Amino acid sequence: MKGANTSIVIFSLLALASTFASASDPSSLQDFCVALNSTKNAVFVNGKFCKDPKLVTANDFFFSGLDKAGNTSNAVGSRVTPVNVDQISGLNTLGISLVRIDYAPYGGLNPPHTHPRATEVLVVTKGKLYVGFVTSNPDNRLFTKVLKTGDVFVFPVGLIHFQFNIGKTNAVAFASLSSQNPGVITIANAVFGSNSPINPDVLAKAFKLDKKLVEYLQTQF
Ligand SMILES: *[C@@H]1O[C@H](CO)[C@@H](O)[C@H](O)[C@H]1NC(C)=O
Ligand SMILES: *[C@@H]1O[C@H](CO)[C@@H](O)[C@H](O)[C@H]1NC(C)=O
């Protein structure tokens, strides 16, 4: 009887654990649902308009051009080229997407940001990157690594992360994200460059900065 009770408890705990587990995007109930902006030639599937499967072609699952380097002539010295559902309509409902990231030599930075809807797995194909992520409150632990060509690193969903080119050459990485539309919040831009601006008193207090410095930072984004 005691053994049976223990089994019931363990089973209940497992059932509870599986209740808490959840994927970023809902799983689809059909092979695909190629996104369509207009209702012309569309069918209604799981509450969404999808392209009529009879009209779907290989091109709905195709993108070309990730061999091309992104332009890194900008303030941070990096460029993300996304390949998500906006570039490949066939990614709709599939819970996955891709980016290419280019970094300028000596300090090209993909600045601290988060993807609210996706875990990211990144592979370096050229150069040397210092990468990291920070865990949520209250620990705010920093996990970092220096990556070279062929190295892979994971950024768990929602956590603030960055990549910094510490090499003498340009660097290139590709990353897959567990959402068709991962979203991105670049911390500095969101905080200091919000539209309209956050009251500087709020930011001065939050960041323990002089209000003048906050106002300066707000002009930079
Ligand atoms: C890269 O971007 C810079 C700044 O916007 C621009 O001046 C330059 O022409 C661009 N280079 C290429 C190759 O597009
Ligand atoms: C649908 O609209 C979005 C947003 O305007 C656009 O980025 C995308 O390319 C469009 N997709 C198609 C298949 O027309």
From TrEMBL:
Binding site for oxalate: N110, H115, E120
Ranges where the Cupin type-1 domain occurs: 64-215
Gene3D superfamilies referenced in this protein's UniProt entry, alphabetically: Jelly Rolls
Ligand binding (Mn(2+)): H113, H115, E120, H161
Highest taxon in the source lineage: Eukaryota
Keyword Manganese (UniProt): yes
Disulphide-bonded residues: C33-C50
Pfam family name, one: Cupin_1
A GO term for molecular function: manganese ion binding
InterPro entries: Cupin_1 (IPR006045), Germin (IPR001929), Germin_Mn-BS (IPR019780), RmlC-like_jellyroll (IPR014710), RmlC_Cupin_sf (IPR011051)
A cellular component term, taken from the record's GO annotations: apoplast
Compartments (UniProt record): Secreted, Extracellular space, Apoplast
Signal peptide extent: 1-23
Keywords noted in UniProt: Apoplast, Disulfide bond, Glycoprotein, Manganese, Metal-binding, Secreted, Signal
PANTHER family: GERMIN-LIKE PROTEIN SUBFAMILY 3 MEMBER 3 (PTHR31238)
Function: May play a role in plant defense. Probably has no oxalate oxidase activity even if the active site is conserved.
Family: Belongs to the germin family.
Full protein name: Germin-like protein
Organism for this UniProt entry: Hibiscus syriacus
Lineage: Eukaryota, Viridiplantae, Streptophyta, Embryophyta, Tracheophyta
